């Protein structure tokens, strides 16, 4: 069912305003705490994902999820980088990984799910802290 409520519109608008970031349900809830309850955020996130308006990314660090506006200018299929120090999650749009993805499918008969593919390491900012 595709219907809109004031709460779902507030949630979607908050996600759009932060389209350059991956947001957890708790971050969305905290950002809207005076207007929308946490349970409502979770329920509406699932609906927005089912409608294809929001993308859900599952991380392998215990199953935590984050969300992003689906029409944020990013490719639909992209990989992720997660900084082990600061926790930042970055989109990785790289033709070399696309080639690896295609190789894995053609040579090994395995289809990679990039929404669950995360490379762990240190982001540039945290690497500079270590080296500097």
Your description of this structure?
Helix content is 41%, strand content 17%. It has 132 residues and is α+β, with helices and mostly antiparallel strands. The radius of gyration is 17 Å and the shape is globular. The protein starts with 5 loop residues before the first helix and ends with a helix.
Low-confidence stretches: none
* SSE succession: HHHEEEEHEH
Helix content: 40-55%
Average the pLDDT over all residues and give the rounded result.
82
The N- to C-terminal Cα distance equals 53 Å
User: How many runs of DSSP E, i.e. beta strands?
Assistant: 5
Strand content: 15-25%
Radius of gyration from the alpha-carbon trace, in angstroms: 17 Å
Can you tell me the overall shape? globular
Q: Describe the biggest sheet?
A: 3 strands, mixed
Output the number of helix runs. Answer: 5
Name the structural class. Answer: alpha+beta
Present the secondary structure layout.
Blueprint: H1 6-17, H2 25-31, H3 38-50, E1 54-58, E2 65-69, E3 79-83, E4 89-92, H4 95-108, E5 118-121, H5 124-131
Helix pairs in contact: 1-3, 2-3
């Amino acid at each position: 069912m595709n219907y809109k409520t004031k709460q779902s519109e507030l949630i979607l608008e908050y996600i759009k305003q932060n389209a350059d970031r991956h947001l957890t349900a708790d971050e969305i809830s905290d950002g809207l705490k005076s207007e929308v309850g946490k349970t409502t955020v979770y329920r509406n996130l699932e609906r927005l994902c089912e409608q294809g308006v929001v993308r859900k990314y599952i991380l392998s660090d215990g199953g935590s999820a984050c969300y992003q506006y689906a029409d944020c200018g990013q490719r639909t299929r992209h990989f992720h980088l997660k900084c082990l120090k600061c926790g930042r999650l970055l989109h990785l749009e790289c033709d070399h990984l696309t080639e690896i993805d295609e190789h894995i499918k053609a040579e090994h008969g395995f289809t990679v799910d990039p929404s669950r593919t995360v490379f762990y390491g240190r982001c540039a900012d945290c690497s500079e802290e270590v080296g500097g």
